[in-house]
Every structure is written in structure tokens, then in C-alpha cells.
Design a protein that fits this description.
The structure holds two protein chains of two kinds.
Chain A lengths: L10 E12 L2 E12 L3 E5 L6 H8 L7 E6 L2 E2 L5 H7 L1 E3 L12 H11 L8 H15 L14 H13 L5 E5 L7 H16 L3 E5 L3 H7 L2 E6 L2 E6 L1 H6 L1 H8 L1 H23 L7
Parallel strand pairs in A: 3-8, 3-9, 6-7, 7-8
Antiparallel strand pairs in A: 1-2, 1-4, 4-5, 9-10
Helix pairs in contact in A: 3-4, 3-5, 4-5, 9-10
Chain B lengths: L3 H6 L9 H14 L8 H26 L7 H17 L5 H23 L4 H20 L10 E2 L9 H22 L2 H11 L1 H6 L4 H27 L1 E2 L1 H4 L2 H14 L6 H19 L4 H15 L13 H11 L3
Antiparallel strand pairs in B: 1-2
Helix pairs in contact in B: 3-7, 3-8, 3-10, 3-12, 3-13, 4-5, 4-6, 4-10, 5-10, 7-10, 8-10, 12-13, 13-14
The chains are: A alpha/beta, B mainly alpha.
């Protein structure tokens, strides 16, 4: 895909022709897609395909080498990093970044203080909001602990709580379910569905295919920095390009060869005369 | 002891540091009010210097402790404040309030001007750049005839009988620094500073304009150092570049803040009291080798109590927590 699709009615984020070069390597090239208001966009791709780079471009941490990301018509690249969340875009980091010496509640309260309203919310109101969010993500039991004492799954929860504290319209989630067990994944999905029902647009990067299929309305697949597929979850996963990107061309060929052998075997079985069974 | 709920109500604990230490620090400040009553000129000067270094330690604590930008340039602000008083005195103005006010305004502007380029640097680079500010300013002053050049100039001096005025002025300035730190630490500003210290990128993603808050921290710290200088100059009665920009007034406050507890409200004051007190005693009893003992003492405290003396007040969990703290600082 090279040309961006025609503008839809409820486009929140428009990623058009985004390319990102690091030295001689194009981590992203010519990536274009729209994210509709209130939708859940799943972003998948093999390791190193550029998912996190794209998240960094969308959240304004990186300025794209070519192309642009616009949010409600404004170019993200023109907005300083700290002002992106004032627009209503929040993100989590794949490598979590808690403020280690602050307590869990303080970590979330900082987001509530400065996030959407740029320091206009009072300290008391921020702490109350933080407590609410900790209860929602299930961290209320460790609210007074130092963030550095948290386990990895709890740090992921803290990242989500910090991002939610920014009162976002668009929330970018970078592998927040990695390291969670099956029950915890279910809980996390329920939480994200709930957040989405309140009108927050989600962009979700995740390796857990089951999770992403169950929550996304649209899936975009990246491979080697390029968009190779976009569409509803079921059609995207059936696409041969996607299977090839994930499992390699040799796997696809072997799979095809195996199918042929199976077919021949089935034929062989079918031509057996019926008396052979007796 | 004061119950925890009361302490939380008044906003202590968390990033303000140990609440008990803060109460102890305020009580000690109260006791220091009595020093001039002893009519000992020597003790008055010793304790006035302790208050002066404490004020500068609070200044350093805001930028180096809370915001995490280790500055070696605080002496520049101290010197600038001192020369503000000297200038006012040369123009016949003899008012400590005017001295402190002018020092605050000049230093805030100076800090913003220097901070805009310098605060873009991080870590060692920032430290080295700030070291240059003090050295450069000392050289500039040494070549300005208006400020007495390298020969120095006299600053208005009240008569011996009213010498205590300077002591109480320094006491007020120190109290101002303690209270300002207390109110900043529990405010949104304090959380912005700490967030920048912990992770500047993550702070920006949470909506904190790092440049703006770094410059704010640096300007307030410059005002603290400048106020100390503004009271010091007339109290000392004479000023030249080697006095205004001395190595001692650059290094002592940093060591005091670290010794007492970096990024806490009580730490710098407690560090100043203990360090300056120990220095005075060592000088008296080991006149030839006192710096050796002094250095050894600092090394030992930093090794044994890396989080500073204030941390002793909040010690729970005994030896195991203490051992953990030792390893935590050597990663």
C-alpha cells in the first residue's frame, strides 16, 4: 500500500507514508493507515518488524524521517513530547519506566497532575484519581509500596494505570500483557474493553495472538518495517503473506509440499479396493 | 512520638523524607535562636556559617537532590548574591531585606539565562559545565573595577554591639530555605522535579515540560545560594573573588546535603550541623591533621550510610534493610 485511503468520517489518527531511518536502516517505510475514533487497532508483526518504532513515532518520541502522523489534523511531529499527552494521546512503554523511588500511588498521581490538564489538577484530586485507577487495574493492595519493589506483571499494570491517569482519548499499549498468566490476560482484556467502551481509542501491540484477535476491530501487520496486511482479524490471519512473515517462506513451501503428499496419500487410500479391508 | 496519621495530614513522609527528621530539624533550628544570647562572638560566627552552608545545601538539594542534576556551580550564585550586597552598600543602601531581595532577583535571572543552554546537558557534562560557571564568574569579577577587582572591597558593617543582626538574618534565610523545600517537596512542583530525576523521558510522556521545571528548580536553588551570599557579605565586612567564590562554599554544601540525605527536607540542615560541627572540633583538637580526619569521616559515612544520616530516623527492619541499602547504591 502506498497511497493513504480516503479520509473516513471518524478518523482520529492518520499515519501517512511514515518512514523512520536509523543510520542505514529503515525501521519503517511507507506505512500508512487510519485509526478510527473509538476503535481498537491491533498492531502485530514478528520481532524487529518496527511495531515499537511506530509507537514511538505516533506518541511523538521519535520524529519520522518521512511522512507524518496527524491527530485530528495536527502533525504530532510539531508537538513537543510533553505536550502530546495534553492533546489526549497516552502510551505505555514496552520496557516499563516507573519512577523507582516514588510509591505506586505517587507514580500514577504524577500522571494525573500533569497529563491531560498540564498541571491544572490539584494534588488532592490527582491522588484521588490515582487511587481510583489503582483499584481499576488491581494495584490498590500495593499503593504505598515503592515502584521499584513491584513484580514484572505489576509493573505492567502500573504502566497502564499511569497512561490512564493522563485521561487519554487515544491509548497506545506496547505489550502490556507480556508475562501475564491466562487468568491475568483475561482480566487485562476485560479492563481494555471497558476502557474502550468509555470511548478511548486503543492501539494495541501484543505478541499474544489470541488476545489481540479477541479485542481488535482492525489488525495491521508489519514485517521488516512495511505494512503487509490490514483488515478484520480473521481475514488478516488467514492471509498467506502474514503466515509467511511469521513462519518464513520455507515453512510455507514445506506446508504446501506436505499438503501435496497428504493429498496423494488420500488418493492412494481411496483407490484401495474395498475387499482389502476384509 | 507523633502518630503517622497526623504526619500524613501535614504532608510529611513520601518525597519530603523522614517526618521525624524534619521535626528534629525544626526543633534544632529553634534552639539555634538562642546562640547570640551566649555573647560569644566565636560561637556566633561558627553557627552563622553553619546556617549559611545549610542554606546553600538546601539550594543544591533542589537541583542536585530532587531534580537529579548534580551542580558544581552553586558558588557562582552565592558570589553573585554577595556582590549584590556589596554593590548596594557602595551606593549607600544599608538594608538586609533589600540585599536579599536584589540577590534573589539577580540570581533568578542569572539562573534562567545560564540554565537555558547548560540544562540541556546531562550527567557528567552538566557537572563540568556548572563547574565552569563559578570559575568564569570569579575571573570576570576579578577584572571589574566597579566590584573592587581582585583587591576586593569593603561592605557596610554594623558595629560590634549589633552583630547579632547578621546572625538572625542568616537564621531567617536558612528557615526560608527549609520551609521552601518543605512546601515544594509536597507540591506538584516537587513531583515534577523527582519525576525528572527518576526518568526524564518518562516524565515528558506524562506531560511534564522537563526544560521548564529544570530551570525552575535551578532558579529557586540559585535564589537560596544568593540569599546566603547577600547576608554573608555585610556580615563579613569585606569581599574579594577568593572569598566570594571559594572552593569551600562550593564543596561544603554538596557534601552536607549528601551526608544528611539527598532529596529530603531535613537532610541538608542535619548534614550541615554535623559536618560543620565536626570540622570545628577537629580543627581545634587536631590542628595539623584535621583535614585527614575530616576526609576519612566523609568517606566512612558515605560508605556506611549511602542514603544519608536522615535515613537513620526512618530505619525499620534493622540490619537487613541496612545491608540492602549498601548494595543498592553500588549497582
Amino acid at each position: 500500500m502506498t497511497a493513504a485511503p480516503a479520509p473516513a468520517a471518524g478518523v482520529a489518527l492518520r499515519i501517512s507514508e511514515v518512514g523512520m531511518r536509523f543510520g542505514g536502516l529503515w525501521a519503517l517505510s511507507e506505512v500508512s493507515f487510519d485509526v478510527e475514533h473509538g476503535s481498537v487497532l491491533g498492531l502485530i508483526g514478528p520481532n524487529g518488524s518496527g511495531k515499537t518504532t511506530l509507537m514511538n513515532v505516533i506518541s511523538g518520541v521519535y520524529k519520522p524521517t518521512t511522512g507524518s502522523v496527524t491527530y485530528e489534523g495536527r502533525r504530532i511531529a510539531d508537538v513537543p513530547t510533553h505536550a502530546v499527552c495534553h492533546l489526549g494521546i497516552a502510551r505505555t512503554f514496552q520496557v516499563v519506566k516507573p519512577f523507582a523511588s516514588l510509591t505506586v500511588r505517587e507514580n500514577v498521581a504524577v500522571g494525573a497532575m500533569y497529563g491531560r490538564y498540564g498541571g491544572k489538577r490539584s494534588t488532592r484530586a490527582s491522588f484521588e484519581r490515582a487511587q481510583e485507577l489503582l483499584e481499576i487495574v488491581g494495584l490498590a493492595r500495593v499503593a504505598e509500596r515503592a515502584a521499584s519493589d513491584l513484580t514484572i506483571p505489576d509493573r505492567k499494570r502500573l504502566e497502564v494505570a499511569k497512561a490512564l491517569a493522563l485521561d487519554p482519548d487515544v491509548l497506545l499499549l506496547d505489550e502490556v500483557m507480556a508475562g501475564l498468566n491466562a487468568t491475568e490476560v483475561e482480566e487485562a482484556l476485560e479492563l481494555l474493553r471497558d476502557v474502550n467502551r468509555r470511548g478511548v481509542t486503543l492501539i494495541v501491540v501484543e505478541h499474544l495472538m489470541k488476545a489481540i484477535v479477541s479485542i481488535s476491530t482492525t489488525i495491521v501487520v508489519l514485517a521488516e518495517g512495511k505494512k503487509i496486511a490490514q483488515g478484520a482479524p480473521s481475514e488478516v490471519l488467514a492471509s498467506p503473506q502474514v503466515i509467511e512473515a511469521y513462519l518464513g517462506s520455507r515453512w510455507v513451501k514445506r506446508q504446501a509440499a506436505l499438503k501435496e503428499i497428504e493429498a496423494q496419500r488420500a488418493d492412494a487410500v481411496r483407490v484401495q479396493p474395498p475387499e482389502a479391508h476384509g | 512520638m507523633i502518630p503517622g496519621a497526623v504526619l500524613r495530614r501535614i504532608g510529611l513522609g513520601g518525597i519530603t523524607g523522614s517526618p521525624i527528621a524534619f521535626v528534629v530539624a525544626l526543633a534544632l533550628m529553634g534552639l539555634l535562636l538562642a546562640v547570640p544570647l551566649g555573647h560569644s562572638g566565636y560561637l556566633e560566627i561558627v553557627f552563622r556559617n553553619i546556617l549559611m552552608y545549610a542554606t546553600m545545601a538546601y539550594g543544591w538539594n533542589l537541583i542536585g537532590g530532587y531534580t537529579g542534576y548534580v551542580s558544581f556551580g552553586q558558588v557562582a550564585f552565592f558570589g553573585a548574591g554577595a556582590y549584590c550586597s556589596a554593590l548596594l552598600s557602595a551606593h549607600g543602601v544599608d538594608n538586609l531585606f533589600a540585599d536579599v531581595a536584589l540577590a534573589c532577583v539577580v540570581n533568578a535571572l542569572f539562573a534562567v539565562l545560564v540554565g537555558l543552554p547548560v540544562l540541556r546537558l546531562k550527567g557528567h557534562y552538566f557537572a563540568i559545565a556548572t563547574l565552569g560557571i563559578g570559575l568564569a564568574l570569579a575571573d570576570i569579577v576579578a577584572n571589574l573595577d566597579v566590584l573592587g577587582a581582585s583587591g576586593g572591597l569593603a561592605v557596610h558593617h554594623v558595629d560590634e554591639a549589633h552583630f547579632y543582626v547578621y546572625y538572625y538574618a542568616m537564621w531567617l534565610v536558612a528557615l526560608g530555605a527549609i520551609l521552601a523545600t518543605y512546601f515544594i517537596a509536597r507540591s506538584k512542583l516537587g513531583f515534577a522535579f523527582v519525576a525528572i530525576r527518576e526518568n526524564e523521558e518518562a516524565a515528558a510522556v506524562l506531560g511534564i515540560d522537563a526544560t521548564r521545571y529544570k530551570i525552575t528548580a535551578w532558579a529557586i536553588s540559585a535564589m537560596m545560594a544568593g540569599s546566603a551570599g547577600a547576608v554573608f557579605a555585610p556580615a563579613n565586612g569585606f569581599l574579594d573573588p577568593s572569598i566570594a567564590f571559594s572552593v569551600d562554599s562550593n564543596v561544603f554544601p554538596i557534601v552536607m546535603a549528601i551526608l544528611g540525605g539527598v532529596g529530603t527536607v531535613a537532610g541538608p540542615f542535619i548534614g550541615a550541623l554535623i559536618l560543620a560541627g565536626a570540622n570545628e572540633l577537629l580543627q581545634r583538637y587536631f590542628i595539623k591533621v584535621h583535614t585527614l580526619f575530616f576526609g576519612a569521616m566523609i568517606v566512612l559515612v558515605v560508605l556506611i550510610l549511602p542514603r544519608g544520616l536522615v535515613w537513620l530516623f526512618g530505619l525499620r527492619g534493622g540490619a537487613r534493610t541496612w545491608l540492602k541499602s549498601l548494595t543498592a547504591f553500588r549497582a
